[in-house]
Design goal:
By secondary structure, the protein is mainly alpha-helical. The chain has one domain (3-55). Helix content is 82%, strand content 0%. It has helices at residues 3-29, 32-55.
Length: 62
């Protein structure tokens, strides 16, 4: 597995963890601000997933 693929997978895992935790805390506390942060984190997760699928097809330049 390539190094940048490992980094992208780490990004996906960390963003997914943060999304789930923020969503749970936001609903438990009723905080719209934390729920909004969870939605923002989901966009970061989406970007990481896109990077994983589209960047993995490119040849490594390193």
């Amino acid at each position: 597995m390539k190094s940048h693929t490992n980094i992208t997978l780490l990004s996906i895992i960390s963003n997914l963890t943060m999304f789930i935790l923020k969503l749970i805390v936001g609903f438990l506390t009723g905080s719209v601000a934390i729920i909004s942060e969870a939605i923002h984190t989901s966009m970061d997760l989406f970007a990481s997933i896109l990077t994983f699928f589209f960047d993995s097809n490119r040849p490594s330049t390193c």
